[in-house]
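Example 3.2
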Amino acid sequence: MILPLLHMLITVHMAHGTMEGFVIQGNKTHIRHYPHSVYLNIICTRITYICGGSILNQRVVLTAGHCLEDCTGKYRDEVYLKYGHENPSQMGSTQMKRFIMHERYDGNSLDNDIALVSGKRNIPLGKTVRRIAIFRSPPRQRLAYMAGWGVMNYRNDVALTLLDTVQEMQPNKVCKLLGTMPRGTFCAGSIKGPGNPDRGDSGSALVVKKYVQIGLVSYKVDHYSLVVYTNVSYFYSWIRNNAHKLYCSRS
C-alpha cells in the first residue's frame, strides 16, 4: 500500500489508506542547520494537515504534489508557508498566492509527485531562512539528511519542533523491495527500524552537503521503513521553468 506522508490535524480518512504506526524518532535540531525548511499548514476541502517544503527563492517553495491535490478551489482553500524557526508557533508566515502541480501528477500511483507554491509576500532571507540549491547533476553521497515536523513517536504525536534524521542512499536492488516505483524517484533510509520520515514530512527536502537538495519526501510502503523520494534533478527543467512563472506572476 502506498502511504503518502501527510499528517491530518483533525480526524479524517486518508486517500491512500490508513498508515501504520511508523516512527521517525529523529533528533531535535535547530533551524540554522536546515534554514531552507518550510512548514506548510494546509486547509483544503475542509481538511487541515501539514507538509514540508523547501525555499527555492523569496517567492517560491518546492513541495510534494500530493500535499496540494485536495486544493481544488471548491471550498475556501488556505495554505500558509511558515519559516525561520524550529517551533511552528514562532515562525514567520505568508499565505499561498498560487500553486502549480505537475501536469502529469497521478494521485493513485504518485507519479510526478511534485509541486511549487508561491507566497503573497516575499520570504525574508537571513541566517535562519535560506534558499536551497538544486542541480541537474548533484553530487553523489552515501548519506543524506532530512528534517521535518512529522510524527515523532509510537503514539503518533506531531513534533512541536524540527527533527532531523540521516538517510542512507539505497541501490536499485534494495528499492525493488518496494515494488514498481514511479519514474523520477529513488529510495533511501533503513529497510526496517526507526529514524525515517513519517506523516507530516511529505514534501520535505532530502539534502547533501547542507544546502543541495536531491529529493523530496513522497511516500513509504507497508512493512518497510524505506522512503521513496521524488528526484528533484529528474525534474530540474520543470522546476526551473515553473518557478520562474510563479516568481514573475502578478496575478
